[in-house]
Structure formats: structure tokens, C-alpha cells
Amino acid sequence: MDFGSEHTSGHTQPVAAQPEKGVRAEKREAQITRILGAAHTCFVQSGFRGASMHDICREAEMSPGALYRYFPSKEALIEAIAERDRINDLRNMARMGEGPTLIDGFINSVMAHFKDHHARGMGPLFTEIRAESMRNETVAACCQKTEGEFIRLFHAFLSQAKADGHIDPVAEIDAIIPMMMALGEGMMLSDVIGKGVDPASIEKILRAMSESILRPKIAPPAKAG
Amino acid sequence: MDFGSEHTSGHTQPVAAQPEKGVRAEKREAQITRILGAAHTCFVQSGFRGASMHDICREAEMSPGALYRYFPSKEALIEAIAERDRINDLRNMARMGEGPTLIDGFINSVMAHFKDHHARGMGPLFTEIRAESMRNETVAACCQKTEGEFIRLFHAFLSQAKADGHIDPVAEIDAIIPMMMALGEGMMLSDVIGKGVDPASIEKILRAMSESILRPKIAPPAKAG
DNA sequence: ATTTTGAGAACGAACGTTCGCTCTTTAAAA
DNA sequence: TTTTAAAGAGCGAACGTTCGTTCTCAAAAT
Question: Which has the closest alpha carbon to A126: A114, A110, A137?
């Protein structure tokens, strides 16, 4: 999918490359990025409630007065961070289906996602967001939105695979999806990779689990008994 | 099969009580129970950080001065609640191994646990505890302790099953355990049962997953003994 | 008489947020 | 080009509130 970037129709078309966006707006965006980065760091370290605005200001090397020109409240900051993280996860997972075989595409995208999640130390933030979503309406809505989008994606993927005869026609997709998602969320929550378990073993188990509930008809690449 | 599960009380207990048992000690215990109940309610509702001591006092119908005679700080209250919850989960799961067959015993205990977890609305608290454990040393230690105990239990269970020839001799137990635990934690986190998925379907998928990684041979009716 | 329990006002600290001010940038006016 | 007014960005002390906790004192229990 491609969401077109802003295009303003002007009277004259400048030949030379000129900054379409004002230098002012650029600086503003840079500051927002800076604040979000600082907030991310602090939230990972101390949690949404535990991190104070002063902490975030210190991390961003910025005074409260300055920060509040960009975000009207701590809530807004929390929501922005939560949304960014959830969307990032969704984007990572959206690559499922790209692979030599059905299961491979799925497993590869999942493994890549978990490795990225672990490498960037996102485990604590994920847990924090889910805890916050239990009682913060906006964060809950954000989680539900990305989750719903993921379910739709997953559903379309599995339906297509079923229609193509790649998976067991009687597989209960509507039960499989939440279970696979639970597995994924559990892996993010407990940071399985961070526990020192060999990624190859994880992949092997993940594959066995996936195949057991999907039972693809396409012959597995190797492992002939 | 029986794996002795023993629990030694942690160091995050309320103000030390006298070893002797009397009317006084009983009343004291009743008050502690009352406070823990109120704290549980408030923590589920607003989270550890979100719930204030005044909230808990109101819920327990007790003044701050009274409450502080039983718990020296909010931290102690959080830790007590976290420990209680974790130990309860551990106890629930310790029933694995009680069943007609290996997989049945496992699945039954897991399903019973999730149903109980859902029915008592413990999902938010579980998430909260895990989030807190990311940065609270004491809660982290508590989680690690019960988790370690569970791993030991699980490991003994699987090792015995493997030695008895009930599961694939090449099954990678040390990778299977964290993966199965991730699945379980994910199910608690996302409250699969609460999503309206048919428990029978959940059980079916859980069974398929378990069998796929354990590959049990046909379970013998009973062991000669 | 002594100890335990309880109530609830009060405390200091920390929080999210605001305010008043200065400095910088922008751009129109001169 | 220079001047000047307006707007934006930034600072950090300070505000009002809320928080966890303590203090004082009285009632109850032993």
C-alpha cells in the first residue's frame, strides 16, 4: 500500500530542489522525534507511571516549557509512544506471506519480528503498553485497532491458504488466530530469545506447532523420516 | 505422578506476627486478609501505580493509620499481592501430571487454570505484575522464584515422561519449556477465553500443539507397579 | 496500668503543568 | 538594506494537587 505524500499545487514549479516543507516545520518534527526518543527511553526504564515528565525533559535535554509546546500532556506522550510501538509491531508482522512456502513465510516473519523485538529491548515496553491498555481507554483503543488489523491480515492469509488447499480445510481459523496470537504475545512478554534459548530451537518448535494446527498439504522441504 | 511442590514464605510479609496463635493473632490475620482483598480490588481496577493508599483504605474501610500497622509501605502491599498471585498460579499448574494420560493431565490442568484465571478476572493483575517485575527488584525476584519452581516441576515431568518413553526421546526439553510457558503466559495476557473463543476449540489446538512437540507414543493404560 | 488498635489531620516530597520572561527567527514595512 | 513588529521556541521557577507516610491522641483490649 502507498499513501501519497502531501502535494500542494503551486503557481510556479521550481526547477531546483527547494525545501517543500519549511525549515521551521522540519525543526519541529526533529524536536518531536527527540522527545519521543527520550520518552521511549524513560518509559522502558521506569514505566509509564514511574517516569516523570522531568525525567523525560532531562533525557531530551529540554525544559518542561519547551516540551509542552509539542505535547499537551503526559497522556498524549504515552499514547503517541504506545501507538508508534503497536504500529511498528503490526508492520513487522505484515510481512507474513512473503516466503518460499506458506509456513516458511509465516515462520520467517515471526522469527524476524521477535529477533528485532528482543534486539531493540522492546519487551518491557510491550508489557507496559498492555498493562496500560487495561485501564487507559485511548491506549486500549490503539491496541484494539492494531490487533484488529492484524487479525484481519492473518484471517485473509489463512483463508486464502485454505482456499488454495494449502492447509487443512477443517482448521478452525477463528480459534487458531487468537491462539497463535497468544503464543506470539507470550513470546514478546517473556522474551524467549532473551532467555538464551537457541533461536534455531525456537524456530523448530514454532514450526512444529504451526504445522500441527495448520497441517499444510505442501510437502515439507526436508525431514523425511 | 507426583512432584513435591513446596513453598517457603518470602521476605515480603507483613509486620512479623507472633508464633503463638490466639484471638489477637486471628484478628490480625483477618485484618491482613481484608487489606489484601481491598488492595487486590484497587490494583485490578487502577494498577499498582494508579491505585492510591487512600483508595485502598477506603476499600478496606480503614484509616491510613490502621492500615500502616499491618503493612509498612505500599511496596510491601504490592509485593504481597504479586507473591500471592504468582503462588496461586504455580499451585494451579502444579496439578499437571494428574490425569489418565500424559497429555490429558497436562491439558486438563492448563485448561482448568485458564478458566479459573479468566473467571476471577485476574488477567489485568497478571499483566500488571509482569510489568512491575520489569523494574521492581523484589517483584522480579518473586516472579523468577515461582517461574523457576514451575520450570523445575515441568522439567521433572517431561524428563520422567521421556525416560518412560512417553515422549519423543529427542524432544528439546530446554527449548520446549520456555515456549510452552510463553504460550501459557500469552493466553493469560490476552485472556483467550474472555475473547469468546470456544474452550473446546482452545483445548483442541492446545492438544495438537502439545502433541506436535512432544510426540507421545500411545499412552499405556497403567504402569505395572 | 500497659499495650494494641484505630482514626484522621497533617506533613514533606514529588508530580504534571503553567507562567512570565528572554532570546531567536521571520517577514513585512520603511 | 535596515528597521521593526509579531510569532515561535525555550527556559526554569513556581503553582496547585496528590501522593505515601507519619503523628497525635483516644478508644479498646489485656
Answer: A114
Start-end of H helices in chain B:
23-50, 53-60, 64-67, 74-93, 102-119, 123-133, 137-163, 173-190, 199-214
- In chain B, which residues have their Cβ closer than 8 Å to the Cβ of A198? 175
Average pLDDT over residues B97-108: 83
> How much is the average pLDDT of A136-151?
96
For B123, which residue in chain A has the nearest alpha carbon?
A134
**What was the pLDDT predicted at B217?**
55
Instruction: Give the CA angle between residues B184, B190, B192 to the nearest 5°.
Output: 75
Residue B21: its pLDDT value, please? 59
**Residue of chain A minimizing CA distance to B171:** A205
CA–CA dist A194, B134 (Å, integer) = 13
d(CA A71, CA B138): 34
Residues lining strand C, beta carbon within 7 angstroms: A 22-24, 51-54, 64-65, 68, 72-75; B 24, 27-28, 31, 61-66, 68-70
Instruction: Tell me the whole-structure pTM to 2 decimals.
Output: 0.87
Angle between helical axes of B123-133 and B102-119 (0-180°, round to 10): 100
User: What DSSP designation does B52 have?
Assistant: -
CA dihedral B51, B54, B58, B62 (to 10 degrees): 130
What does the alpha-carbon distance between residue B33 and residue B31 come to, in Å, rounded to a whole number? 5
Q: Which of A187, A189, A204 sits opposite B130 (nearest CB)?
A: A189
Which range, A125-139, A210-224, B21-35, has the best average confidence (pLDDT)? Answer: A125-139
Q: How far apart are CA A152 and CA A143, in angstroms?
A: 14
Number of Cβ atoms within 10 Å of the Cβ of B89? 22
Question: Which of A124, A131, A186 shows the shortest C-beta gap to B128?
Answer: A131
How many contacts does A have with B, using Cβ atoms within 8 A?
140
Q: Is A149 exposed, middle or buried (0-12, 13-18, 19+ CB in 10 A)?
A: middle
Contact call for residues B67 and B56 (beta carbons, < 8 A): yes
